[in-house]
Write a structure and sequence with these properties.
Elements: H1 4-30, E1 40-44, E2 49-52, E3 62-66, E4 71-79, E5 86-92, E6 95-100, E7 104-105, E8 114-120, H2 132-141, E9 144-154, E10 162-164, H3 168-178, E11 182-187, H4 193-209, E12 219-222, H5 236-252, E13 257-262, H6 263-270, E14 277-280, H7 306-311, E15 312-318, E16 331-336, H8 337-340
Parallel strand pairs: 8-9, 9-11, 11-12, 12-13, 13-14, 14-15
Antiparallel strand pairs: 1-4, 1-7, 2-3, 4-5, 5-6, 8-16, 9-10, 15-16
Length: 341
């Protein structure tokens, strides 16, 4: 027969074991990961959207207010039969709750022949967007179909050191979350074949380190004149030959490319390159999306270059946004959608 001391020890052991199981269960619950593999991606686009504990607007706890750009996984959409309110069951930061469906926005590719595209770099951080979520909300609200993000490039100075853009991942993660097709661009300043090979290795290494399923657009090779410090400024007569070599070597490695440049520079030096062009020519203070193409502008020497115009698939027409249509000071381009299908 057990004595009182033995019984007490057993009781204490049972209590400790029970408490341990409870603590283990609570920790496991708090650290659980909710499966969102089949969820739809969205982003809240209404200021101060409420995140409810239950699908009710009255007599229910509000978990918190959600700022514009909050990234959301949508598990289910449904309508409350009593109130006819449309709800979405969502996951935010591994917590399940409910939001009004009207506060959510999704990426939808435009059906227009020419669609909008923006390009982003570290210079947009702070100036235009504080977070990737805020940028994502902007893309949805402005009906942006494609995005180019700066990977980096070769420095303008004499040494030509390589650099990567510190905000690439911020913008790429947001595009990946929304399933927006995007591409990378890098700045070329190669002076010879050896430096071309270095640039190709830079791109290959960058792509290996930054794998995204939505990074599907051709790589844009940025070829520009620089007012000061441009190490390739003295060899413009040779640039077409060097850039052609760069393109051919990249395509041999399965890397599809286009060339980005200023329209006048491309007309003067690059028009013979066998590639598609994304050309920049800015319209002053435009508040509307052009309903015409760059080639229709009069008194523009590049527009008279039929070979160059036949290769042009994108037109960067502003660097300050488009009034209320694209209400941020960002580079905006029109692009022929069929080229990227």
């Amino acid at each position: 027969m057990l004595n009182k001391k033995s019984i007490l020890i057993i009781i204490v052991a049972i209590v400790i074991f029970t408490i341990s199981l409870l603590i283990f269960g609570i920790v496991k619950y708090l650290n659980r990961t909710i499966d969102v593999s089949n969820a739809k991606h969205s982003v809240t686009i209404v200021e101060n959207a409420d995140f409810y504990k239950k699908p009710k607007t009255e007599n229910v706890k509000i978990r918190r207010e959600l700022p514009i750009g909050t990234l959301v996984y949508v598990l289910e959409d449904f309508v409350d039969e009593k109130t006819n309110i449309e709800w979405s069951k969502v996951v935010i930061n591994n917590k399940i709750g409910y939001v009004l469906t009207s506060t959510l926005g999704y990426y939808k590719a435009s059906d227009e022949e020419k669609v909008l595209m923006v390009d982003l770099s570290k210079f947009n951080k702070g100036k235009n967007f504080d977070t990737g979520g805020e940028m994502a909300a902007f893309l949805i609200n402005s009906n942006i179909t494609y995005v180019y993000i700066r990977a980096g490039g070769r420095g303008y100075g004499e040494k030509g050191n390589f650099y990567t853009d510190p905000e690439f991942q911020t913008w790429a993660d947001a595009c990946e979350f929304l399933d927006i097709p995007f591409g990378i661009y890098f700045l070329d300043e190669a002076l010879n074949s050896e430096e071309i090979d270095e640039e190709i290795k830079f791109v290959e290494d960058f792509l290996k380190e930054n794998k995204y399923k939505n990074n599907i657009l051709p790589i844009a090779i940025d070829v520009e004149k620089h007012d000061a410090g441009g190490r390739a400024n003295g060899i413009w007569e040779e640039r077409a030959i060097l850039v052609t070599e760069l393109i051919q070597k990249m395509e041999q490695k399965g890397l599809k490319t286009i060339v980005y440049s200023n329209a006048k520079v491309a007309n003067e030096f690059l028009g013979t390159i066998p590639t598609k062009f994304w050309l920049a020519y800015y319209i002053d203070n435009t508040t509307k999306i052009p309903n015409y193409w760059y080639s229709e502008l009069e008194e523009q020497e590049p527009t008279e270059n039929e070979e160059l115009m036949s290769k042009m698939i994108a037109w960067q027409f502003t660097e300050i946004g488009v009034g209320r249509v694209v209400p941020r000071q960002v580079d905006v381009s029109l692009i022929y959608k069929d080229f990227y299908k």
